[in-house]
Amino acid sequence: MRARASSFSLITLGILAVLYPPDAAATCKSVTILHGVSSSFEQCGQNAHAFFWLQGRAIQRMIGTIAGGTAGHDSGRNQTDVEGMYLAGPNGNGSYTGNSDWSNPGVDGCALAFTEADTSGCQGGDNFGVTNYVLAGIDSAQPNLARMAVLSVDFNEPMQLWVLDNAGAPSVDGDPCGGDALSWNTSPVDCEPIPMPTLEASSATPEGTILRLGIGSTAGIPILDDCLIAEDRATNCPRNLYAGRALVYRHGACTAATDATLDHRSYIYPSSPPSGTLAVTPSWLSFSLEDTNLNGSLDVGEDGTHGGIINGQLDPVIIPGTDPVTVDVLIPANPDATDCIFLGLGILLDEHHFSLDPPTDTLFGETVMSPEVSVNPNPVALYGPVTMPDVVTAISARRDAGTGLIEWSTAAEVNTIGFNVIGVKNNGRSMRLNAELVAANEGTTGKGSTYTVTIEARELKGSSSFFIELVKTDGTTRRFGPARF
Predict the structure, then answer these.
(1) Which long-range contacts (CB under 8 A, 24 or more apart) does 390-396 make?
(2) Largest CB tally within 10 Å, which of 49, 90, 233, 470?
(3) Stretch(es) of the chain classified as CATH 2.60.40.10
């Protein structure tokens, strides 16, 4: 659809009035990122964090002065509405519009440092490259999950700003200088969850524990661009922003309550340095099979171990694609450790790595991590074998005076509400044999327990095998077994 010029003017004036004023010391003039003409981020959770950058030219781990390029060309330390990264959206909690400005205090680099050829002949003035914008928040109903969405837009030359509403917009007349410049996405952009890594199985080795992790689908996470209408789509499309799923971790106390205290931000930034640049350690470290002591640094003898490449750096565990998969990782044993690690999953974006200092070409942009990560709440021990939470570790069945005794045990009940005994008949039909849910003895304490249920002979008739169905506090279930007489 084509917006009216008068409507755009009113929206722009209202937004610019509440955005941060341009930095007086900046060498870059104010260039607006506009959003909310026809769409907004929705269902993104509370207290969202955002990051924007010039395509291929971000350095998320570095902050610096607004005029310098050695810290990348991105939003720098800014993350929230307090720093001018977005405004509240039209629909309450979890609703945002990504209105911001490249001249806000704390922004790194300069949006005007790289121009693009005016291939369309719009003659609208300056023409610059692609700005990418990612927003992520925490799911209020499932606080271990982060929700995110990405918008990517070419510079809108006729309007002389970046309009996030152009992402996902249809072509109106095929003219980026005409109707296409005023074509908006009229649907809300719903943030979708980043799956947390699930603990599926474990096995002990001399070096530690092999954990099998379940990695869920990320196909639903919206990553929208304006390639149907972009002026320079011949040179900057397709954008190919999605770069895979990154396994991350951080250390914490070995208690079930620790995860509630963990900040899910991938980076927690201090104030900008008075001059020069400042390297910031990510709050969630990339998990690497080479990092045999899980200290986040490449130590002597680690490079190239456990299938890694000898390249002078720790090779991160990156899961390509979007389909659900399982991944085996080694959790190294450290008998002297007193803490645990928590595993999380982040989304990687933009592997273009364009030059930051042409024509010298000694500095390049880096891959971007989602501003928030999803976290498995179960602590993973470093000082011995990893105990799998919320699983039945043993199950047996035996007859006793005409009745059946079904026995099972658990090792660590973290989110367990109870159990059902499931009998499978000779014809393959399943039925629950207990009248009421068998309540968990430990439930959420992290401790294990044992259970015995007596099944009357009339209930056993025709049953050839038995399963234990574990019921978690969120209502999900998982079966273990079978056991037979």
Answers:
(1) 390/414, 390/415, 390/416, 390/470, 390/472, 390/478, 391/470, 391/478, 391/480, 392/419, 392/468, 392/470, 392/480, 392/481, 393/448, 395/466, 395/467, 395/468, 395/480, 395/481, 395/482, 395/483, 396/483
(2) 49
(3) 392-483
